[in-house]
Fold this protein.
Amino acid sequence: MTTRMTLDQRRFASIATRRLLGQEGPFHADSGEVWIERLSCREIAKPLGTPLLVYSAARLRDNIAEVAAAADAFAWPIRVHFALKACYLAGVAELVQKAGLNVEVMSEYEYLLARRIGFSPAQVIVNGPAKRPEFLERAVIDEVPLINVESPSEIAFLQDLGRRLGRTIEVGIRINPLLSRRLRGPFTPPGSKFGFDVPSGEAADAVRKIVTSRFLSLQAVHCHGYTRQYTPDAHRAQVAAAVKFLRRVEADLGIRIPILDFGGGFGSRYLMEAQGWTFQQFIREMLHPLIGLPGDRQVIVEPGRYLVNDAAACLTSVLVCKRTAHRRWVLVDAGRNILPPRENAEYVVMPCQVSPGRTVYHVGDFLCTPSEPVPLSLVSGSMKPGDLLAVFNAGAYTFSMAQNFGEPIPNAILVDKGEWTWLFKKRSVEEQFLR
C-alpha cells in the first residue's frame, strides 16, 4: 500500500481545504483573506516574518475532543496515547496532556521531553524497533507500565534487568502479520525491521520466551502498519490479523493477553471527514473484528498526525516568480528546514489573499536541491514577490523533523482566542554556534 500522494489525491486535498476554509472554523476565509481564529494571516505574519509555523489552539482542542469522544463511545475501554514524534513543541503537547490524553515515545529524548511537559511515567508507552539499554533501564526503574519489545535482544535484556532488580517487568510484543499486497502497509512488508514476523513463527516463539520467563509478564500485542489513512479498511485488516494471532497463542499457551495496541496511522481529520468518515466511525469499523473476543480487554490507539496536522499552517512568502518553457513557478522562503519533504505529507498550499484568475503556479522552495518540500501547485491570479501563502497540514512531523538547512528553524506560535504566544523562537547564527 503506497503512501505517496497521487495527483488525484492532491486535487482532492486541495478541494477539501477550500471547503474547510469556507466553513466557520479556526481556519476560514473572510473578505478575501485567510484567517486563523480571529487573526488574518497577513496580520500574523507582518510582525513576525516568514516562514512562520502557526498552530490553532481551537482546532487542536477540537481534534482532541473528537478522539476522546470516539474512545468513550466504544464498548471496550480505549486508551489514547499521543504519538509525541508528531510534534515536539512543548506548548502543543501541553494542551494534549492537560486534556487528559496519554503519550507514546520512541526514545529517551522523547521520554524526557514528555516528562518535562508533564506526563507521568504511568501515562507512557515505549515503542521503537531498537531502544538503548540505558533508556529501557530508565523506563523500568520509573515504572513505565508498558514497553513494547521488537527483538530477541530486548527480551533478553529486560529479562536480565528483571532478574537484577528482583521484579517482574510488564511488556508488550510488536507483531508483523503479513497482509495481502493490497492492504500491506509501509511498516509491514516481508522482512520488515519492525516487530516479530507472524507467518514464520517468530512472533509465537517470542511470546513463548516471554511467557516462560520468571521476570517478564506479557501484557499486550502491538501492531502498527499504516500511515495517513482516511478510510478504515486497512486498519480493520490489521486488527483482524492481530486477533487471529492472539486467539492462536492464547489457545496454545493457555494465557490471556489483556491489551491490544493498534498504533496510529490516521490521516488529517478534515481530509478523513471529506472522505465520509468521522473518527468515531473509523474506530468503530476498524475494531469490528474484536467482536466476540472473550475476556476483559483494553484497546490502545496512538494518534499523532490526526491530532496536530490540520491544527497548523506554515505561512511563507513568495521570493521569486519565474516562467520556464514548461511551467510557472513561485519560489518561497519555506524549505525543508520546516517542511520536510516526505512521501506521506499532506501539504496543501493556497494564497492568503484571494485574487481573481486561473493561472496555475508550481510551488518550490529557495534551496539548491531538486527535492521540494512543497511539490504542489496552486491556482490563483497573478502572483508577485512578497505575496503570502499558507501551507496547510503543517502541524505533524514538521517541527519534530525540522533542521537548520539553508536557514535556521523558523519561528512557531500558538494562536488562541485572538492572541498568540511563542512556541519556538528562531535562533541566530550567534545564538547557535558562537560563544
In short: DSSP finds 13 helices and 21 strands in the chain. The chain has two domains: 7-56+309-433, 58-308.
